[in-house]
Amino acid sequence: MSQEKKLPWKVIRGMQWYLGLPDKFLKDPVSNLDSSFKVVEMEDGLQGLNVEIDEKKLSLLQKDVIKRGGEYLEAAPLVIPLYPSKGLRLKRKISYWLDEFQRLPYVSPYEDFQHLNRSSDNYEKRVVGVFHETLGLFVDHSAERKKLFCLRLYLGLPQKFYKVLNATHIYFTFH
């Protein structure tokens, strides 16, 4: 979500199927929310959902490291699992870049990212982490590109977010 941690209802409604939300959730959201969420007014008179997280939230990748018996250390490299498509042979240059990319420190999608330089490799790894986390929230771990594009503004992603979508779609699938 954005720094304000708000998402408009119209976006949630458009993602309803991907998120596995029943129709009754959108008809009476107030009674279906736990204490971490609340309905708020947003700019332009829109209503949205606000998230109030008091404790530190772990991403799916961080939870997976802990589940496997490892220890997740803040600002440590965390390998994003990528599964090459069948028959794909990475060129040496791309393979070297991918190895270096995996060695970068992991920035959780739930952490403040304002200190990151938007043109840095660390910021790009955060974008891939946000993409991975978002797909992990969806029922079948996939979504139409246009559905993901509408989340760009609310997830704090750069204008050229489509580059990550294109690169990961061509080279890898997430699991």
TrEMBL record:
What sequence ranges are listed for the domain PORR? 1-168
Coiled coil regions, renumbered to chain: none
Which domain of life does this protein belong to? Eukaryota
Molecular function (GO) terms for this protein are: RNA binding
Q: Name one Pfam family in it.
A: PORR
Q: What is this protein identified as? A: WHAT'S THIS FACTOR 9 protein
